[in-house]
Amino acid sequence: MENKNKQTWLRLFLAIAAILVVVAAGVVKENKYNPTLGNGAFSIEPVQIEEIGEDKVVYTFEDVKVDETNNTFLFYSNHLEIFVYADDVLIYSLVKDESVFGRTPGAMWNIMSLPVDVNNIRVETIQAYPNLAQQDVTFELGNAIVMQRNVVVNSIIDVCVCLCILIIGVALFFFWFMVFRKTNEQRELLYLGLFAWIFGVWAFGETQLAVFMFSHRAFWSYMAFTCLMTMCLPFILFAKNFLEAEDKYIHKWIAGYIIIEAVVAQFLHLSGIASVKETVYFTMASILMTMVYLFYTIVTAIQRKKNKRKIIANIIGLLALATTVIVDMGGYFTNVSEANQLGKVGFLIYAVILGVETARIAQEQVQESHKAEIYREMAHKDIPTGCFNRNAYAEDTSIGMELTGVQLITFDLNNLKKCNDTKGHMAGDKYIADAAHMIQEVFGVLGKVYRIGGDEFCVLAKNISETVILQKRAMLRNEILKYRDENNDYGFGIACGYATYDPEVDKDIEETRHRADLSMYENKKGN
Predict the structure, then answer these.
(1) Which is higher by pLDDT, 33 or 186?
(2) pTM of the model as a whole
């Protein structure tokens, strides 16, 4: 029941993730501007675009209409140094960050207030990295509140997708932690959860809302790139475990490359020897090798004619994930502001498909384990009394058992044959069940209670003082007297004896039990 509840929580997380996307899609409208706040926001086109060399572009605007309500100038840039002049006066600049996080301004929403009497605006952009494709920069002029709101609204779906991916990652991780941590099974749940979480952090860091929220873009871009470098490692391990790939070395070689590449790249970045852009090709090689390995595991699984549902789930998800890689890799070198959106949705589909399938398999394994536990318990339990049976006793006292301090407390039911002969076997069965319950209530705290014969029981204890055993025997005697009075059955009785393993006397545990039986027979005479 507990495992079913955990499965229900996982399904609930996945359902919430899907609902968030649907609700967000219904909330966002095409009409993005509120005309009650001035004129809202509108695009303005430069009268001249001049390319100077390979890396510099100058945009010139003339006769700009600015008033007290609509005086905010806004545009998005990526890896560009920015210099904005109002009537030849520098009013805004964004320059390279020469810190350890990279020699680039990163992605940035550039927002500034213009003087009301301005006529001409000149925007100079310089590529932070050489040989990048020129970006299409869109400029807007309008009300600051409306423009900032538009950035948030236009990012809702993108952000919701990222949050859904993060929720899935956290849900899978905690599901594994709660159910399989002790047994270390179903590690594909753990690896997929870690991968989804890292992917979600990276994807959110690249959203327009994150760009707008976090001012130190070089740092956040660096953190996003760090996530990009490391996310392939858990995915490789996920593919290996999920599709039960039989390779011994391929996944280790790829994982080793990913680790070495990440460490070397971090060293090159932090030491200033190379920038993120200069090492991105090695990271993309990691992504490419990961995709090839996934394809390899699918093909080998098909050849083995196993795990058809896993194969189908991966093929469907792989189509979505391939879109992610193509869109993101292409967008990284062109217009990043428009990249990642379709790719994130593709990965969300993949994560949901694989997450549900992995959770389903995990649930089936939990159920099978539960059944196996029931069967194992049935093989070691005496059903009528609930005590452990003779098989369990033989297993627990098998060769190799540490005998030092071991004690055996044995029991025998008085007058059981007379009860069967005079009252019938149903009464005899009740006699046995009641006696077993009484022994468990009194002596069960000391160790396991076994039914080793028809009317013979024993308790396997360790390092219990003789005083405690005698106290328990006295308690048993009181329970017997109480039972006799309540049931008007004065023939009911349980004899009890005990012995502690003595290496100088006993060759094995059975000789200890024999001495305990002798003690029990002495007790029987007193009853």
Answers:
(1) 186
(2) 0.56
